Amino acid sequence: MMHPEVLQQQTTDTNHATVTMRLPAELAWFRGHFPQHPILPGVAQVNWAMQFAAALLPMEGDFSGMEVLKFQRPILPLETVTLTLEWQPARQKLLFSYCVGEVIASSGKIALCR
């Protein structure tokens, strides 16, 4: 299993969306990262941000690189997280953050190219 269990997704306007998801312990992303203390890898977080943004927002372009990426708290199996997305079309930037409750677990800014 590679994808989280989506509990709710909402597009609040043309350039903003949120996705609330539960992370089953069986997710392939948790295997081997790390064996005794599994956490959700950053590459999975960026991948999901891109996938959900492409599905929910009028995002144009392909991944060009990361400008900012901050990990403030590990995301663990069985947690419920909220992914917040903001598409900035004039700057070709996708901003994202993952929150566990009220606590920001990670955030980043992805640059896209046309």
Automatic annotation (TrEMBL):
Protein origin, superkingdom: Bacteria
Record-level Gene Ontology MF annotations: lyase activity
Keywords: Lyase
Keyword Nucleus: no
EC number, as in UniProt: 4.2.1.-
UniProt enzyme class: lyase
ApeI dehydratase-like domain ranges (all copies): 10-108
Designated name of the protein: (3R)-hydroxymyristoyl-[acyl-carrier-protein] dehydratase
Organism in which the protein naturally occurs: Serratia rubidaea (Serratia marinorubra)
